[in-house]
Specification:
binds adenosine-5'-triphosphate, binds magnesium ion, 36% helix, 10 helices, ABC-type phosphonate transporter activity, cell membrane, Rossmann fold, translocase, 6-stranded mixed sheet, globular
Protein backbone atom coordinates (compact mmCIF):
# COMPACT_ATOMS: atom_id res chain seq x y z
CA UNK A 1 0.00 0.00 0.00
CA UNK A 2 2.68 2.47 1.11
CA UNK A 3 6.28 1.85 0.21
CA UNK A 4 9.09 4.14 1.30
CA UNK A 5 12.36 3.22 -0.33
CA UNK A 6 15.76 4.54 0.66
CA UNK A 7 14.24 7.94 1.31
CA UNK A 8 16.94 10.46 2.12
CA UNK A 9 17.08 14.15 2.96
CA UNK A 10 20.23 16.11 3.40
CA UNK A 11 20.51 19.71 4.57
CA UNK A 12 24.01 20.77 3.58
CA UNK A 13 26.27 18.25 5.25
CA UNK A 14 23.62 17.11 7.68
CA UNK A 15 21.66 13.99 6.75
CA UNK A 16 18.25 14.47 8.38
CA UNK A 17 16.79 11.23 7.01
CA UNK A 18 19.14 8.51 5.91
CA UNK A 19 17.85 5.85 3.48
CA UNK A 20 14.59 5.24 5.31
CA UNK A 21 12.77 2.17 4.07
CA UNK A 22 9.31 1.24 5.33
CA UNK A 23 6.68 -0.99 3.75
CA UNK A 24 3.08 -0.95 4.91
CA UNK A 25 0.61 -3.39 3.33
CA UNK A 26 -2.66 -2.19 4.90
CA UNK A 27 -3.97 0.98 6.51
CA UNK A 28 -2.45 0.65 9.96
CA UNK A 29 -1.76 3.17 12.68
CA UNK A 30 1.98 3.67 12.54
CA UNK A 31 3.97 5.49 15.20
CA UNK A 32 7.37 7.07 14.62
CA UNK A 33 9.48 7.70 17.68
CA UNK A 34 12.94 9.03 18.36
CA UNK A 35 14.64 11.84 20.16
CA UNK A 36 14.62 15.44 19.03
CA UNK A 37 16.41 15.85 15.71
CA UNK A 38 16.10 12.17 14.77
CA UNK A 39 14.39 13.09 11.50
CA UNK A 40 10.74 12.30 12.29
CA UNK A 41 9.24 15.55 10.98
CA UNK A 42 11.44 15.55 7.90
CA UNK A 43 10.30 12.03 7.06
CA UNK A 44 6.64 12.98 7.45
CA UNK A 45 7.07 16.14 5.38
CA UNK A 46 8.66 14.19 2.55
CA UNK A 47 5.66 11.84 2.51
CA UNK A 48 3.27 14.65 1.66
CA UNK A 49 5.82 16.49 -0.47
CA UNK A 50 6.11 19.52 1.79
CA UNK A 51 9.85 18.87 1.73
CA UNK A 52 11.48 17.57 -1.45
CA UNK A 53 13.54 14.43 -0.92
CA UNK A 54 17.24 14.37 -1.79
CA UNK A 55 16.96 10.79 -3.02
CA UNK A 56 14.79 7.71 -2.71
CA UNK A 57 11.14 7.08 -3.54
CA UNK A 58 7.71 6.87 -2.00
CA UNK A 59 5.00 4.73 -3.59
CA UNK A 60 1.35 4.66 -2.63
CA UNK A 61 -0.60 1.85 -4.22
CA UNK A 62 2.21 1.49 -6.74
CA UNK A 63 2.06 5.11 -7.85
CA UNK A 64 5.30 6.98 -7.35
CA UNK A 65 4.44 9.89 -5.09
CA UNK A 66 7.91 11.37 -5.18
CA UNK A 67 7.56 11.87 -8.95
CA UNK A 68 4.24 13.75 -8.90
CA UNK A 69 4.10 17.36 -10.08
CA UNK A 70 1.61 20.22 -10.23
CA UNK A 71 -2.06 19.31 -9.89
CA UNK A 72 -1.25 15.65 -9.24
CA UNK A 73 1.05 16.58 -6.41
CA UNK A 74 -1.61 18.84 -4.87
CA UNK A 75 -4.16 16.04 -5.17
CA UNK A 76 -1.78 13.81 -3.28
CA UNK A 77 -1.33 16.48 -0.60
CA UNK A 78 -5.10 16.45 -0.15
CA UNK A 79 -4.98 12.66 0.13
CA UNK A 80 -2.62 12.89 3.06
CA UNK A 81 -3.85 15.53 5.45
CA UNK A 82 -1.41 16.79 8.03
CA UNK A 83 -1.98 17.81 11.62
CA UNK A 84 0.58 19.59 13.74
CA UNK A 85 1.64 20.05 17.33
CA UNK A 86 0.49 23.67 17.30
CA UNK A 87 -2.86 22.90 15.58
CA UNK A 88 -2.22 25.60 12.91
CA UNK A 89 -5.75 26.98 13.10
CA UNK A 90 -6.66 30.59 12.33
CA UNK A 91 -7.15 31.73 15.94
CA UNK A 92 -9.64 34.55 15.36
CA UNK A 93 -11.75 32.66 12.89
CA UNK A 94 -14.71 30.57 14.02
CA UNK A 95 -14.42 26.83 14.32
CA UNK A 96 -16.63 25.93 11.34
CA UNK A 97 -14.72 28.23 9.00
CA UNK A 98 -11.48 26.70 10.20
CA UNK A 99 -12.84 23.26 9.37
CA UNK A 100 -14.13 24.44 5.99
CA UNK A 101 -10.62 25.53 5.12
CA UNK A 102 -9.92 21.81 4.70
CA UNK A 103 -11.71 22.10 1.36
CA UNK A 104 -9.69 25.05 0.06
CA UNK A 105 -7.63 22.99 -2.31
CA UNK A 106 -10.69 22.14 -4.40
CA UNK A 107 -12.31 25.59 -4.40
CA UNK A 108 -11.89 28.47 -6.77
CA UNK A 109 -9.82 31.50 -5.87
CA UNK A 110 -12.88 33.71 -6.06
CA UNK A 111 -14.96 31.51 -3.75
CA UNK A 112 -12.05 31.46 -1.33
CA UNK A 113 -11.65 35.24 -1.39
CA UNK A 114 -15.26 35.79 -0.48
CA UNK A 115 -15.40 32.92 1.96
CA UNK A 116 -18.19 31.30 0.00
CA UNK A 117 -18.71 27.75 1.09
CA UNK A 118 -21.30 25.44 -0.48
CA UNK A 119 -24.14 24.51 1.86
CA UNK A 120 -23.24 20.83 1.51
CA UNK A 121 -19.72 21.52 2.78
CA UNK A 122 -21.07 23.44 5.76
CA UNK A 123 -23.31 20.52 6.67
CA UNK A 124 -20.47 18.10 6.31
CA UNK A 125 -18.22 20.26 8.51
CA UNK A 126 -20.84 20.29 11.23
CA UNK A 127 -21.35 16.52 10.93
CA UNK A 128 -17.63 15.99 11.37
CA UNK A 129 -17.52 18.33 14.39
CA UNK A 130 -20.40 16.38 15.85
CA UNK A 131 -18.61 13.15 15.26
CA UNK A 132 -15.61 14.49 17.15
CA UNK A 133 -17.75 15.72 20.03
CA UNK A 134 -17.15 19.45 19.52
CA UNK A 135 -20.16 20.63 17.48
CA UNK A 136 -21.32 22.88 20.31
CA UNK A 137 -18.19 24.99 19.77
CA UNK A 138 -18.83 25.46 16.04
CA UNK A 139 -19.60 29.24 16.20
CA UNK A 140 -16.80 30.11 18.63
CA UNK A 141 -13.45 31.51 17.67
CA UNK A 142 -10.83 28.78 17.53
CA UNK A 143 -8.72 30.60 20.11
CA UNK A 144 -11.50 30.26 22.68
CA UNK A 145 -11.14 26.48 22.76
CA UNK A 146 -8.85 24.33 24.90
CA UNK A 147 -5.80 22.75 23.30
CA UNK A 148 -7.47 19.36 23.06
CA UNK A 149 -10.55 20.87 21.46
CA UNK A 150 -8.41 22.85 19.01
CA UNK A 151 -6.56 19.73 18.00
CA UNK A 152 -9.90 18.03 17.33
CA UNK A 153 -10.86 21.00 15.14
CA UNK A 154 -7.61 20.45 13.26
CA UNK A 155 -8.52 16.77 12.86
CA UNK A 156 -11.97 17.81 11.61
CA UNK A 157 -10.32 20.12 9.07
CA UNK A 158 -8.15 17.21 7.95
CA UNK A 159 -11.22 14.97 7.60
CA UNK A 160 -12.89 17.54 5.33
CA UNK A 161 -10.27 16.53 2.76
CA UNK A 162 -11.43 12.92 3.05
CA UNK A 163 -7.78 11.88 3.16
CA UNK A 164 -6.41 8.37 2.70
CA UNK A 165 -3.68 9.05 5.23
CA UNK A 166 -3.54 11.33 8.23
CA UNK A 167 -0.03 12.49 9.02
CA UNK A 168 0.25 13.76 12.56
CA UNK A 169 3.42 15.53 13.66
CA UNK A 170 3.55 15.33 17.46
CA UNK A 171 -0.22 15.80 17.75
CA UNK A 172 -0.25 15.68 21.54
CA UNK A 173 3.07 17.28 22.44
CA UNK A 174 1.37 20.52 23.59
CA UNK A 175 -1.47 18.86 25.47
CA UNK A 176 -1.99 17.79 29.05
CA UNK A 177 -2.43 14.04 29.61
CA UNK A 178 -6.22 14.19 29.58
CA UNK A 179 -6.48 16.05 26.30
CA UNK A 180 -3.67 13.92 24.90
CA UNK A 181 -5.74 10.83 25.53
CA UNK A 182 -8.88 12.28 23.95
CA UNK A 183 -6.94 13.30 20.82
CA UNK A 184 -5.19 9.93 20.51
CA UNK A 185 -8.51 8.12 21.05
CA UNK A 186 -9.97 10.26 18.27
CA UNK A 187 -7.18 9.39 15.85
CA UNK A 188 -7.46 5.72 16.72
CA UNK A 189 -11.22 5.69 16.12
CA UNK A 190 -10.89 7.48 12.80
CA UNK A 191 -8.35 4.85 11.83
CA UNK A 192 -10.52 1.93 12.92
CA UNK A 193 -13.87 3.15 11.68
CA UNK A 194 -12.87 4.86 8.42
CA UNK A 195 -9.97 2.57 7.56
CA UNK A 196 -7.67 5.55 7.13
CA UNK A 197 -3.98 5.08 7.66
CA UNK A 198 -2.55 7.21 10.46
CA UNK A 199 1.15 7.97 10.71
CA UNK A 200 2.01 9.84 13.87
CA UNK A 201 5.29 11.19 15.13
CA UNK A 202 5.19 10.73 18.84
CA UNK A 203 7.52 12.02 21.49
CA UNK A 204 6.66 9.35 23.92
CA UNK A 205 7.00 5.62 24.19
CA UNK A 206 3.89 4.90 26.16
CA UNK A 207 1.61 6.56 23.59
CA UNK A 208 3.26 4.71 20.71
CA UNK A 209 2.93 1.41 22.54
CA UNK A 210 -0.63 2.00 23.51
CA UNK A 211 -2.14 3.29 20.26
CA UNK A 212 -0.06 2.08 17.36
CA UNK A 213 -0.13 -1.22 15.49
CA UNK A 214 3.46 -0.79 14.50
CA UNK A 215 6.25 1.48 15.64
CA UNK A 216 9.28 2.76 13.77
CA UNK A 217 12.19 4.07 15.81
CA UNK A 218 14.55 6.64 14.32
CA UNK A 219 17.97 7.66 15.49
CA UNK A 220 20.23 10.15 13.70
CA UNK A 221 18.08 9.94 10.57
CA UNK A 222 18.17 6.15 10.41
CA UNK A 223 15.46 3.64 11.12
CA UNK A 224 16.84 1.56 13.96
CA UNK A 225 13.66 -0.27 14.92
CA UNK A 226 10.54 -1.40 13.09
CA UNK A 227 8.19 -3.69 14.93
CA UNK A 228 5.16 -4.22 17.11
CA UNK A 229 4.54 -2.42 20.41
CA UNK A 230 5.33 -5.74 22.15
CA UNK A 231 8.74 -5.81 20.54
CA UNK A 232 9.41 -2.29 21.74
CA UNK A 233 11.05 -3.30 24.99
CA UNK A 234 12.90 -1.00 27.35
CA UNK A 235 16.17 -2.27 25.88
CA UNK A 236 15.08 -1.42 22.35
CA UNK A 237 13.83 1.97 23.49
CA UNK A 238 17.18 2.70 25.09
CA UNK A 239 18.80 1.96 21.77
CA UNK A 240 16.42 4.32 19.92
CA UNK A 241 16.75 7.18 22.36
CA UNK A 242 20.45 6.65 22.96
CA UNK A 243 21.89 4.77 25.89
CA UNK A 244 22.96 7.82 27.86
CA UNK A 245 22.45 7.94 31.57
CA UNK A 246 19.51 10.30 31.20
CA UNK A 247 17.27 7.75 29.60
CA UNK A 248 14.32 6.59 31.57
CA UNK A 249 10.87 5.42 30.60
CA UNK A 250 9.43 8.24 32.66
CA UNK A 251 11.33 10.84 30.66
CA UNK A 252 9.64 9.66 27.50
CA UNK A 253 6.19 9.29 28.99
CA UNK A 254 3.21 11.56 28.50
CA UNK A 255 1.88 10.18 31.74
CA UNK A 256 -1.36 9.09 30.09
CA UNK A 257 -0.69 5.81 31.88
CA UNK A 258 -0.37 7.57 35.19
CA UNK A 259 -3.83 9.09 35.20
CA UNK A 260 -5.78 8.02 38.23
CA UNK A 261 -9.22 6.39 38.16
CA UNK A 262 -11.13 9.66 38.60
CA UNK A 263 -9.34 11.29 35.69
CA UNK A 264 -9.97 8.25 33.52
CA UNK A 265 -13.66 8.34 34.37
CA UNK A 266 -13.77 12.02 33.40
CA UNK A 267 -12.22 11.21 30.06
CA UNK A 268 -14.64 8.34 29.50
CA UNK A 269 -17.53 10.69 30.21
CA UNK A 270 -16.21 13.23 27.72
CA UNK A 271 -15.29 10.54 25.24
CA UNK A 272 -16.01 11.33 21.65
CA UNK A 273 -18.71 9.22 20.10
CA UNK A 274 -17.04 8.67 16.76
N1 LIG B 1 14.80 23.22 7.00
C1 LIG B 1 15.88 22.70 7.56
N2 LIG B 1 17.10 23.19 7.31
C2 LIG B 1 18.22 22.66 7.85
N3 LIG B 1 18.22 21.60 8.68
C3 LIG B 1 17.04 21.06 8.98
C4 LIG B 1 15.80 21.57 8.46
N4 LIG B 1 14.77 20.81 8.94
C5 LIG B 1 15.35 19.89 9.74
N5 LIG B 1 16.69 20.03 9.78
C6 LIG B 1 17.62 19.17 10.54
O1 LIG B 1 17.32 17.82 10.24
C7 LIG B 1 17.43 17.01 11.40
C8 LIG B 1 16.11 16.32 11.64
O2 LIG B 1 15.12 17.27 12.01
P1 LIG B 1 13.61 16.90 12.27
O3 LIG B 1 12.89 18.17 12.50
O4 LIG B 1 13.14 16.02 11.18
O5 LIG B 1 13.71 16.05 13.61
P2 LIG B 1 12.55 15.54 14.58
O6 LIG B 1 12.83 14.10 14.84
O7 LIG B 1 11.24 15.89 14.02
O8 LIG B 1 12.83 16.37 15.93
P3 LIG B 1 11.80 16.96 17.01
O9 LIG B 1 11.44 15.79 17.90
O10 LIG B 1 12.60 17.98 17.73
O11 LIG B 1 10.64 17.53 16.29
C9 LIG B 1 17.87 17.93 12.51
O12 LIG B 1 19.26 17.84 12.64
C10 LIG B 1 17.46 19.30 12.02
O13 LIG B 1 18.27 20.28 12.55
MG1 LIG C 1 9.70 17.10 14.67
Amino acid sequence: MLRIEQLTKTFGRNTAVDRATIEVDRPIMLGIIGRSGAGKSTLLRMLNRLTPQSSGQVYFEDREITALKGAEMRAWQADCAMIFQQFNLVPRMDVVSNVLHGTLNRRSVLATMFNLFPQSDIHRAIDILERLGIAEHAPKRAEALSGGQQQRVAIARALMQDPRIILADEPIASLDPMNAQVVMDTLRRIHEEDGRMVIANLHTLDTARRYCDRVVGMRDGRIVFDGTPQQLTTGVARDIYGADAGFSEAATSTAIETLDATQRAEIDAARVTV
